[in-house]
TrEMBL record:
<comment type="similarity">
    <text>Belongs to the D-alanine--D-alanine ligase family.</text>
</comment>
<feature type="domain" description="ATP-grasp">
    <location>
        <begin position="123"/>
        <end position="324"/>
    </location>
</feature>
<keyword id="KW-0067">ATP-binding</keyword>
<keyword id="KW-0479">Metal-binding</keyword>
<dbReference type="GO" id="GO:0071555">
    <property type="term" value="P:cell wall organization"/>
</dbReference>
<keyword id="KW-0436">Ligase</keyword>
<dbReference type="InterPro" id="IPR000291">
    <property type="entry name" value="D-Ala_lig_Van_CS"/>
</dbReference>
<keyword id="KW-0133">Cell shape</keyword>
<feature type="binding site">
    <location>
        <position position="277"/>
    </location>
    <ligand>
        <name>Mg(2+) 1</name>
    </ligand>
</feature>
<dbReference type="Pfam" id="PF07478">
    <property type="entry name" value="Dala_Dala_lig_C"/>
</dbReference>
<dbReference type="GO" id="GO:0008716">
    <property type="term" value="F:D-alanine-D-alanine ligase activity"/>
</dbReference>
<protein>
    <recommendedName>
        <fullName>D-alanine--D-alanine ligase</fullName>
        <ecNumber>6.3.2.4</ecNumber>
    </recommendedName>
</protein>
<dbReference type="InterPro" id="IPR013815">
    <property type="entry name" value="ATP_grasp_subdomain_1"/>
</dbReference>
<keyword id="KW-0547">Nucleotide-binding</keyword>
<comment type="function">
    <text>Cell wall formation.</text>
</comment>
<dbReference type="GO" id="GO:0005737">
    <property type="term" value="C:cytoplasm"/>
</dbReference>
<keyword id="KW-0460">Magnesium</keyword>
Amino acid sequence: MPARPVIAFVTGGYSGEAEISYKSAITIEKNIDTSKFDLYKIDIRTDGWWYVPESGQPVEVDKNDFSLTLAQRKITFDAVLIGIHGTPGEDGKLQGYFDMQGIPYTSCDAASSALTFNKRYTVAVAAFAGINVARSLHLFRDRKIDAATISGQLSLPVFVKPNNGGSSIGMSKVNQSADMQAALDKAFREDDQVLVEEFISGREFTIGVFRHNGEVVTLPFTEVIAKNEFFDFEAKYQGKSEEITPAVVDDAIAEKVRAAARKVYQVFNCRGVIRIDFIYNEEKGVPYMLEINTVPGQSEASIVPQQVRAMGWTLQEFYSSLIDDALAPK
């Protein structure tokens, strides 16, 4: 009987989003097919990269070749399942490291991860490729523009958000000029770069996309109805939103969203599962891309697991597909 592939599942991370990574880890670990894969969970933290065996004594990963030594036996990995939100698992840093080690992984590559982690660069590339996006300004901490200038260049309301990262941390909606400076200060507390983006009215849809047996597959997508004024951190992670999966939409609208999602996946050369947020503007009859999440949340209540179940798959089947795709010859 052939040996099972040995898979490292990496969680944790160096940012405030580690909290979300650990929530995702519970679901992922519970739904990995251990009859098919040998799984080792690696906690990547600022004080080291650790595996905790059943004995409870943490073992540090050898970063020279991403290996473990357990009971004098060296363990190397056939592939890595990336479950880290934020740096270094979502911004391309780990992907570059695994590329140097020659170890395949379940997410977008280093270039696509780094690009999509930067919201402004993402919308710039999307616009260049003919994907609809909102008008925006890109601000830098050392080259700040005053609030009045921003209000003169973009139509209110606008969203002000840290340019890098996800989870809607540091994000504000600004309806009047007087509130602009406080929103900028809030965003700059999280990042050295800030994106100010015009508000687009419409229905908010979010859709998971992945590759299965070489084909790009769109999951049944979700309509997000925020109880707060917009889909902020509370709405995402503290129950302050209503999520309807699958979204109740006309077939013509659904196909426009699915087609836009497939185009985004291909334009950005994505791998693994991503989640794309759209606003569907009913007046113009087109979806506008908001952002791309290359390591979407995987907690039981998260949107991608909802969509997987709506497609009729188990999470075990889904994670097996992601790992199989990473292991497949390229």
